[in-house]
């Protein structure tokens, strides 16, 4: 049976790897239904949610609360 293995990243994205069964290898045919299996939980973000090391940093700070005694 053809199988789709997925990896779940900490950003909640999923990446799939499709593995064709031995019977169908070398063809463009897949099994129906395709078995879906969890491969692992990654300990990092997916590639599209990572930033480059030289990316400018932007810091967002919370506005300071105004004094009530003014």
Residue share in helix: under 10%
Give the overall shape.
Answer: elongated
What is the tally of beta strands?
3
Largest sheet: 3 strands, mixed
Can you list the strand order of the major beta sheet? 2-1-3
Structural class: mainly beta
Whole-number mean pLDDT:
87
Distance between the termini: 73 Å
Report the portion of residues in β strands: 25-35%
Radius of gyration, in angstroms, nearest whole number: 23 Å
Q: Low-confidence runs (pLDDT<50, min 5 residues)?
A: none
Number of helices: 0
Order of helices and strands: EEE
Molecular structure report:
The chain is mainly β and 70 residues long. It has a domain at 3-42. 0% of the residues lie in helices and 27% in strands. The protein has no helices and three strands. The protein has strands at 3-8, 14-19, 35-41. Strands 2-1-3 form a three-stranded mixed sheet, with no helix packed on it. It is elongated.
Please provide a brief summary of the model.
By secondary structure, this protein is mostly beta strands.
């Amino acid at each position: 049976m053809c199988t789709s293995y997925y990896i779940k990243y900490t950003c909640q994205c999923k990446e799939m790897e499709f593995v064709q069964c031995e019977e169908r290898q070398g063809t463009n045919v897949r099994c129906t239904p395709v078995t879906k299996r969890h491969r692992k939980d990654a300990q990092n973000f997916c590639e599209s949610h990572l930033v480059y090391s030289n990316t400018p940093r932007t810091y967002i700070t919370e506005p300071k609360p105004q004094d009530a005694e003014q």
